[in-house]
Amino acid sequence: MAAARVMVSASNTVTALLLSKGPLRRPNSFSLCFRNGPVQKRRLFTCSAIYNPQLQTKEEGQPETLDYRVFLEDNSGKKLSPWHDIPLHLGDGVFNFVVEIPKESSAKMEVATDEQHTPIKQDTKKGKLRYYPYNIHWNYGLLPQTWEDPSFANSEVEGAFGDNDPVDVVEIGKSRGKIGQVLKVKPLAALAMIDEGELDWKIVAISLDDPRASLVNDVDDVEKHFPGTLTAIRDWFRDYKIPDGKPANRFALGNKPANKDYALKVITETNESWAKLVKRSIPAGELSLV
User: Fold this and answer.
1) How many Cβ atoms sit within 10 Å of the Cβ of residue 18?
2) By CB distance 3.0 to 4.6 Å, which of 14, 28, 204, 253 could disulfide with 9?
């Protein structure tokens, strides 16, 4: 029997997930709540926020094995999907971010979008666990309730189609996150990565708990207070496949990071795509909607 361990996060970031009071509405009930989004008066779609003094992560199996999974649970032990059940939008330009890969680690962890409750697992290729060739230097994970639609050709980004995953976040704060941890972040920039022809957005953000969070509010602030970070992020994601004999990834939008407003636009559009997905307006294929 796979070992199971439950970890209750005592950090302020997860405890601060007292998002807004109210019962959880599952996405597959198709009962979506609407909130006004910050970009172009477009609406952000989100389920009712989870009211949990302590959000738990439950490990099943042993790390660095094929059966290892990290689940999110509420206080009653009910499993929650980090993709579908964690609300995206917290208001005032603040969003929830789920850590998949803690900074300074190399195991390629990701939400299992085709498994029930979409737990976090280590990615595999040809039956073997995947690792980056070197550590990633920032917390990396996903924006819940977003989806890059593989049937949508983005005319602003070379007509590239979405990669069929939630939107990725690169969180540049100094603290090292934990797998499954939920942080409140504010977006600062967006990088339009083209990975084997697919569009794979990277939203650069910072945790509100970071000491320098108040100093950075847009792309120019990142360069001022975190000099060289945007270039380092771009180069890291451009080159990480080269040691495996694959070509470098490319970046659209002039090979430069877009500003905060553009990042918010990306978040709004991919949130709308997710809403269509969970309402089954778009075929889900093998994706789990629970």
Assistant:
1) 14
2) 14
